[in-house]
UniProtKB/TrEMBL annotation:
Source species taxonomy: Bacteria, Pseudomonadati, Pseudomonadota, Betaproteobacteria, Burkholderiales
Main location: membrane
Domain Polysaccharide export protein N-terminal stretches: 56-131
Protein name as annotated: Polysaccharide export protein EpsE
Stretches assigned to the Soluble ligand binding domain: 224-275
Alphabetical UniProt keywords: Cell outer membrane, Ion transport, Lipoprotein, Membrane, Palmitate, Polysaccharide transport, Porin, Signal, Sugar transport, Transmembrane, Transmembrane beta strand, Transport
Keyword Ligase (UniProt): no
Recorded family membership: Belongs to the BexD/CtrA/VexA family.
Domain of life: Bacteria
Topological type in the membrane: Multi-pass membrane protein
Length: 298
């Protein structure tokens, strides 16, 4: 009698389990993961084109030499770690050669997924690409910086100041003029930037986004030379807006035999010829000026 009562209960439990299983089967598959890697393996990002308004939506564009990991959801046999070849291609299982160079990470994911779908290898492929090492997108920093060299562009909106910081900043001999050269839209590109203005109001516009192949050059600081009857003759750093009087002070001032009368400045003109200038004490010095202080006759 007890066993006959259990059958309705067991039947109800079985029916509930079937309904639960059916509801689970109809649940949509997880959405395609974004190209952003896990926290333990941060995906580097490359610079967006100059003029981009924001790096928030910029994606890394794969370059030759980049090391990447490709995985397909629920298909562990398609897991692949490889490098992008010099001609921008990779060899992927079932698909053969796939061109990914120059594509954003999401675009490369879509191209591989499309190949798997069209070949009927995977019905709904969910492809994820993680950039393991950046070597394809780099910029060089030369001149008066603490660590000159070639650096990978690991952030989507790597800007001029970011690259300069990566190189350790400007040395004590560095000037205030930066020169960024490269190519934009297939044409030569050159930008001269006054470093202090980057931190002034509105200076963000000059803090441009760096692109692959760019070269940043930091010139040596401007100088002037002083000799004759001064305490410390020699080469001096030319500060912005420095006058002749300030230049004399930088040289320690005049000696007991020196006079401020008859001071001469040898200055190179626009035509390359050296001219002798009879300056006033408020004369603004220029890069390369040579100051001569005469000896007093009395």
């Amino acid at each position: 009698m007890k066993s006959s009562r259990r059958f309705p209960i067991l039947a109800a439990m079985l029916m509930a389990a079937c309904l639960s299983l059916n509801a689970w089967a109809q649940t949509p598959a997880p959405a395609t993961r974004s190209a952003a890697p896990a926290a333990t393996t941060a995906a580097p990002t490359a610079p967006a084109p100059v003029g981009g308004t924001s790096g928030a939506t910029a994606e890394y564009r794969l370059g030759s030499g980049d090391a990447i990991r490709i995985s397909v959801f629920q298909n562990p046999d398609l897991l692949l770690e490889t490098r992008v070849s010099e001609n921008g291609t990779i060899t992927f299982p079932l698909l053969g050669t796939v061109r990914v160079g120059g594509l954003a990470v999401s675009e490369a994911e879509g191209r591989i997924a499309e190949g798997l779908r069209k070949g009927n290898f995977v019905k709904q492929p969910q492809v994820t690409i993680v950039v393991l090492k950046v070597t394809g997108n780099q910029a060089s920093v030369l001149g008066q910086v603490n660590r000159p060299g070639r650096y990978p562009l690991e952030v989507a909106d790597t800007r001029l100041t970011d690259l300069l910081s990566t190189a350790g900043g400007v040395t004590e001999f560095g000037g205030e003029q930066l020169v960024l050269t490269g190519t934009r839209d297939g044409k030569p590109y050159r930008l001269e930037v006054d470093l202090p203005t980057l931190f002034a109001e509105g200076g963000r516009a000059q803090d441009v986004i760096v692109q692959n192949g760019d070269v940043l050059w930091i010139e040596r600081y401007p100088r002037f030379y002083i000799y004759g009857e001064v305490q410390r003759p020699g080469q001096m750093r030319l500060e912005r807006g420095m006058t002749l009087m300030q230049g004399l002070a930088a040289g320690g001032g005049l000696t007991l035999r020196g006079t401020d009368r008859g001071i001469r400045i040898n200055r190179k003109g626009a035509d390359g010829q050296v001219q002798e200038v009879k300056p006033a004490m408020n004369e603004v010095l220029r890069d390369g000026d040579v100051i001569f202080v005469r000896e007093s006759l009395f």
